[in-house]
Amino acid sequence: MLNIKITKICLNVAAALILPAAISAQQAEEPPAKPSPTMESHIGGLSGRSAPGGDLYYRYCWGCHGARGNGDGENAPWISPQPRNFIPATFKCRSTPTGTLPLDSDLYDSLTRGFITTNMPGWATLTAQNRADLVAFIKTFSARWVTDKPGEPIPVPPEPALSLDSIKHGKALYQKLECWKCHGSEGRGDGPAANTLTDSNDQPIRPYNFYTGYRFKCGTSNSDLYKIFMTGLDGTPMPSFADVVKPEEAWDLVHYLRTLQIWHQSPELALWESTPEGAAIVKAERVRNTYTGNPIHP
Amino acid sequence: MRMKHIFMSGLVLVAASGVAVAGPKPAGGTISGKVTYEGTPAKMKPIDMSKEPSCAKMHTTPPLAETVVTGAGNSLENVVVYVSAGAPDDAAPSTAAVFTQKGCRYIPHVLAFQVNQEIKIANEDQTSHNIHPLPKLNREWNKSQPPGTPPITEKYDKHEIFPVKCNVHPWMHGNFAVLKNSHFAVTGDGGAFSLANLPPGKYTITAWHESYGEQTQDVTISGSESKTISFVFKAKPY
Question: Exposed, middle or buried: residue A9 (CB in 10 Å: 0-12, 13-18, 19+)?
């Protein structure tokens, strides 16, 4: 009798000791998170749903981005840079820090404006509701939309008044931060490292050429430009400078970068050209190549 | 009498279990050995750093690429040897793993650390680097680090081994190994490794090399025995 009781106690104690170990072993074997088949998007007052978004995707998008969203559509082999693979959920144009998910509004804006120097057109022809639904559907491809939250948007302080000092300081920063290593000393995208650059899939990629046109990959405004180098374009060689550039310095850099766009009339370029130094630099840039009249392919 | 007996037995058991949980881990077994290669490894080319004079002048002779680093007796360096199955996940240590950019090289070439362990990335060069790790499972980020800026602190939350590169200096290439437990080693000169403090059990040991791939071996440890295993990679001449 006594023996049985003791055995029982022993078993209970043993079970209490073994059970937690068994549970922790189970936790270690936990399967990886799966993408959610239904997602929503919220852009301002607009809400999108993935179900109608899917219908749109399999009409307009899958030819390049592929049936499973991994960028292997039937047009993909003829396209450079390659269509975006939605499975890692890495996106170039964000208002959030490097390595974080973008806001729904970032995806919506990218979809609306398209990407210059790539095959991705702007989809402003679709209704706002259509685009919101597509954003929701794109989020069904990656489990990161289930496990992670979009990053906290980086703060963009109000733009200070333009001044010559600001442009000159921006010019010094362009040197100091070694932007010229890729973008070239005149911003033509021909720096010493330019022809070695590859994206995260080992495909060749060119740095932005400020000489051509005025649109950027991620927008057209000064605050878009601010966000581009502060967030970095994830998946490309363009890193984030948020940890190394102070906000007021960032605006100086924005003002200088505008002066590199010598065929785009801007307050920054006008002010820069009003100085002997700036006028000489801009003039030299303009006569170096014969302008053909086409801002995209001069 | 009976009740007292049972009570006492229970106490002894509880006390014993308390010791087992709270006390220091028993000194376990050790798996050690050496990683070698057979065949002819590719000849490493000297790196032309002339586009980055501040780095070029830090080397008296041009350094060699590090995709395959070999030593005496066909030993193979920069191999991550780790327990891939059989050991529970460990909590991350409080010390940070340090990755340094010096002379436009990564030191160490392969940095192994644990899931959620802090890593510190320092730039000791007089030039800007961008640190661009290329994970597939973890989140991908890319940060600029001009000279004289403080170290970048980061963490990874999933087990994965992936390359790290600097886009400005295309020859700069390293690896991060994010591992689930503390039983790992990266082979250095001589190709030797040692995984200590392994409680009795059956383990899968994985050896990973950036050019030659991955190998696994199952090893059973009983008591505090020491076992010796070896990994032999087939070298590719190109």
Answer: middle
3-state secondary structure of B193: strand
Q: Does residue A8 have a pLDDT over 70?
A: no
CA B185-A88-B87 angle, to 5 degrees, is 30
A window 154-213, beta carbon within 8 A of B = 176-178, 181-182, 192-193, 196-198, 200
Angle at which helices A50-60 and A128-138 cross, to 10°: 90
Phi, psi (deg, nearest 5) at residue B214? -130, 145
Please state the domain extents for chain B. Answer: 28-233
ipTM score over 0.90, yes or no: no
Going from the first residue of chain B to its last (238 residues), give the mean pLDDT of each consecutive group of 10, the final group possibly shorter.
Answer: 48 40 62 96 94 94 96 96 96 97 97 98 96 94 96 96 96 97 96 94 97 96 93 89
- pTM for the structure as a whole: 0.84
What's the topology of domain B28-233? Answer: Immunoglobulin-like (2.60.40)
Alpha-carbon distance of B234 to B207, in angstroms, equals 13
**3-state DSSP assignment of residue B78:** coil
Report the half-sphere exposure of A274 (CA within 13 A, side-chain side). 9
Q: Is the previous residue joined to A77 through a cis bond, with omega within 30 degrees of 0?
A: no
Residues β-bridged to residue A223: none
The CA distance from B196 to B184, in Å, is: 9
In order of their start, the domains of chain A are 40-147 (1.10.760.10), 164-288 (1.10.760.10)
Decide if A232 and B168 are in contact by the 8 Å CB cutoff.
no
Please give the residue of chain A at the shortest CA–CA distance from B142: A239
